[in-house]
Amino acid sequence: MGLFRRRDDPQPRQPFSWVLPKQTSSLAPEDIYTNADLDPTTDPAQRTWGYGTWFSFWVAASLDPAFWQTGASLIPLGLSCANAIGIVILGNVIISVPIVLNGMIGANLRIPFPVAARASMGYWFSLFAVLSRAFLSLIWFGVETYNGGSAMTQFLRAIWPSYWNIENKLPESAGITTRDMTSYFLFWLIQLPFFFLNPNQLRWAFMLKTVVVPVTMLATMGSLVHAAGGAGPLFHQPNLVTGKDFSAAWLLGLASLCGNWATLAVNSPDFTRYTTTNRAQWSQAIAIPLSAFFVTICGILAASASIPVYGLTNDAAYWSPFDIMSQWNNRAAVAFAALAWMLAGIAANITANSISSANDFVTLAPKYINITRGQLITAVLGGWAVAPWKILSSSGTFLTFVSGYAIFLGPLSALLTADYFLVKRKAYHVPELYDPESIYKYTGGVNWRAALTLAVTVAPNLPGLIHAINPNVVIGNIQWWYAPGFITGYIPALVVYYLLNLAFPHHATLLAEAVTADDVDLSVPPTIDNFGTKSDELNKDAYEMGSVSVHA
């Protein structure tokens, strides 16, 4: 396979070549270059994610420093601890709906997100969704790596206490010190071996994190609560805002929670295509809110207890686990906790970012990129070109924009849901999704219904995004439409796209039943009928497009 082969690749090692060999398993026509990383996972050996793997997958995704600090974005808004926890549970329950629904596409048809998006958006327009998701994955890969670098700093200062006092040789404008840049590089480096593993093999890393990280979180939180003699002042703090300000805080918190998983609401087929059964991935509906609740309550209790333990004011509570660890004198405790947080960062980065963006890069350049190369590209671009230390040291304007990008991800997620369940009624022709001249070409590779849906549903949220980036821009009450973020993109897009397809159906794509990769004899050359639908008059039984019909 050239640079690079995965460990489970049975093929003999080939000489290095930038061009990947055209693989015989591809469903695309001979003149279209693709590779097996985008093909359906038809081999049962590829489908190994059971109920336990799905639960550990979400534990792996949730139990990281960013989620530990969720309370830091909610309680400072003036909300009580009870309301903050309520928002966490509700937000994760809401976002689990599109994650599970869109995950059914991968579970039923065994195709990744970039391929599934072609059914609703058109073969070429789907690249907009692919690029959007890749952009965000790169940003968050860098941010997650930066958090892992903070854990590396704690680990190294536990081994060599003098590491904490390394002299800074970088200018202030760099946004990072020499010590932290060293830690960042080392953590970035230790992630690389995981990119050579097949997604099936990663389930063992998820399971390990499911054991190690919760124990570390409970130990950190429990020791602080014990030392404080209770939960601390923040845990009993009442709401500090009322009326309109209370509603605004609730909506902003809810938008933040939904936005955390907005990318996975779009690309969940990338993972669900590895599930053992169609039903196994439904366990996500329980795993998502449960794991988010656990890590958030630990973070809030630890921050609240840190106030009396370390003599802090309420505004100076330690929300970051690394701030808490910096106060510890027990070097063994620091080292083991830091290792756990590094494992948390690696697992979260792989689940939410690197594999997702790798699938995108494979779609954009399948002749040169497979999933392994895509992950390495993500590591370079997300780890260094993004320069996350500059982003995190800035005023936060750029991160506000990235978080607000959920106004695009909501409609994109809705297109997948509405198209599969409401418009096509689960009847996709999988081999056709791999052909740019197929029924999913629509008009020039663009489904104008999807394009119009995006325009209609994104436009009302743009003033709110502008106001969030620059509060000096007055937009009036329309900011209330933007406040829920993902929700006011997802639900309207569901309705608009469905109504457009009712009024202007694309008959060629409305099949009587689904045609999977296992159902078609690809050796039969198809022809084109009057609807633009592929069929073969002599071999209709061999090429199932002969059974095309329009839904009643």
Automatic annotation (TrEMBL):
- Supply the InterPro entries for this chain: Pur-cyt_permease, Uracil/uridine/allantoin_perm
Mainly localized where? membrane
Transmembrane ranges, per UniProt, are 49-68, 74-101, 122-143, 181-199, 211-235, 247-266, 287-312, 332-352, 373-392, 398-423, 450-469, 481-500
Keywords of this entry:
Membrane, Transmembrane, Transmembrane helix
Q: Name one Pfam family in it.
A: Transp_cyt_pur
In alphabetical order, the GO MF annotations are:
nucleobase transmembrane transporter activity
Q: Where in the cell is it found?
A: Membrane
Topology within the bilayer? Multi-pass membrane protein
Q: Which CDD domains match?
A: SLC-NCS1sbd_NRT1-like
Q: What's in the GO CC field?
A: plasma membrane
The record's comment on protein family reads: Belongs to the purine-cytosine permease (2.A.39) family.
Q: Give the protein name, as stated in the record.
A: FGENESH: predicted gene_12.260 protein
Q: Which organism is it from?
A: Rhodotorula toruloides
Its gene? Answer: FGENESH: predicted gene_12.260
